[in-house]
Design a protein that fits this description.
CATH topology of the largest domain: Cytidine Deaminase, domain 2
Radius of gyration: 19 Å
Largest sheet: 5 strands, mixed
Number of strands: 5
Number of helices: 6
Distance between the termini: 39 Å
CATH class of the largest domain: Alpha Beta
Oligomer: single chain
CATH superfamily of the largest domain: Cytidine Deaminase, domain 2
Shape: globular
Order of helices and strands: HHHHEEHEHEE
Number of domains: 2
Structural class: alpha+beta
């Protein structure tokens, strides 16, 4: 089930609806959506479904908070969103957070997916995305599924290449984040942007 396609009301209904487990001795009612998906299964399946719904609701709430004002005035909200977005991913992803002139979030987009240890990032595509959204600035982020939080030399080089490419179209890179488990490292805080 694509949880991102459901409305908030549908997600809450799914979260609160009783679910049936195959091992249950006293069958409970099950929501129609779960029954149609054939999710009547183990307790682990039920738990995974509910956690997925809770994660989707939290991502939406944090995303709404990020849109409400300048992104960097609530860095903890951004860090929480990044940790939650990247939680459990077994492959690298590269995200662009497009910002307006007041650094309010226009849109967050997963631009590239990679392997366990690397993602190919094409500056041209980042520039195209920024121009398509009329962004004035952007922050970028990627995860390290290995758990190694330290930015690599390649990460630093990528940041400089993106800064250069985007500066040609008057778009400023305000930060690059690396997410590893529960830790989020900011290039700006380390003086690398």
């Amino acid at each position: 089930m694509n949880l991102s396609a459901l409305s908030r009301a549908d997600l809450v209904r799914e979260l609160l609806s009783p679910l049936v487990c195959a091992s249950s001795t006293n069958p409970l009612h099950v929501s129609d959506a779960v029954a149609q998906m054939g999710m009547l299964g183990t307790t682990d399946t039920v738990l995974a479904h509910r956690l997925g719904i809770a994660r989707e609701l939290l991502l939406r709430d944090l995303h709404a908070q990020m849109r409400s004002g300048p992104l960097m005035t609530s860095p903890q909200v951004l860090r929480d969103w990044l940790r939650l977005y990247c939680a459990g991913l077994e492959h690298e992803v590269f995200l662009a957070l497009y910002l307006d002139a007041q650094h309010r979030l226009i849109e967050a987009e997963e631009l590239f997916r990679g392997t366990l240890t690397q993602t190919s990032v094409y500056p041209r595509e980042v520039v195209k995305g920024a121009l398509a959204r009329n962004a004035s600035a952007l922050a970028v982020a990627h995860n390290h599924p290995s758990g190694e939080v330290e930015p690599s030399r390649a990460d630093e080089l990528l940041t400089q290449n993106l800064k250069h490419a985007l500066s040609l179209v008057d778009v400023r890179v305000i930060d690059h984040f690396v997410v590893a488990g529960d830790t989020v490292v900011s290039f700006a805080e380390r003086g690398l942007v």
